[in-house]
Amino acid sequence: AQSVTQLGSHVSVSEGALVLLRCxxxxxxxxxxxxxxxxPNQGLQLLLKYTTGxxxxxxxxxxxxxxxxxxTSFHLTKxxxxxxxxxxxxxxxxxxxxxxxxxxxxxxxxxxxxx
Amino acid sequence: DTExxxxxxxxxxxxxxxxxxxCEQHMGxxxxxxxxxxxxxxxxxxxxxxxxxxxxxxxxxxxxxxECPNSSLLNLHLHALQPEDSALYLCASSNDRGFYExxxxxxxxxxxx
Lengths: 115, 113
Prior knowledge:
The complex is a heterodimer of chains A (115) and B (113).
Chain A: E1 3-7, E2 10-14, E3 19-26, E4 32-38, E5 44-50, E6 56-58, E7 64-68, E8 73-78, E9 87-97, E10 100-105, E11 109-114
Parallel strand pairs in A: 2-11
Antiparallel strand pairs in A: 1-3, 3-8, 4-5, 4-9, 6-7, 7-8, 9-10, 9-11
Chain B: E1 4-7, E2 10-13, E3 18-25, E4 31-37, E5 44-50, E6 53-57, E7 64-70, E8 73-79, E9 87-94, E10 103-104, E11 108-112
Parallel strand pairs in B: 2-11
Antiparallel strand pairs in B: 1-3, 3-8, 4-5, 4-9, 5-6, 7-8, 9-10, 9-11
């Protein structure tokens, strides 16, 4: 069975500082990995995804993540935090089953950006 | 158009009411999903429809009844809900080729009184 562990349910950074949100996964097959962002009272928006190929994945809003198979990790980074990055971030792993995904989400990390 | 729409945005219902949540997408996606999200928790999968057929029911109580009238629409019929069913209900869709990322709607905030 697949699973995701997000280390740190709350992360605080200063505006302009590096953002690092940690995610480790467990999957019995080569994983599809995703990071989603959720702003208050909104749905989830896809930030980036890893499927195959290049292990450094660039997403929207300046975020990127690196797939490290040896460490079973998919940490999310951004060089310089903006106030608008304050939100909940979910790491997810999925299995494709006959035309649809079954997605397992991590518990989420709430990012606070301090002015 | 990469939008999934959900109506209503907010819903308050009593425990004896019957109501429905609606979800629509026009991206040609053939898989659609219902999730339930409680405060400060990740989304929990409830149902998956693939090609308008129910593919996954994650042991959801029968007071929740999904329906997929066509490839663009997904409904969730609600009846005799409990206060603990209050949550944000999210709809999502994905295609059946490529890498299947899910597109989420904005959700319906449901309060059961």
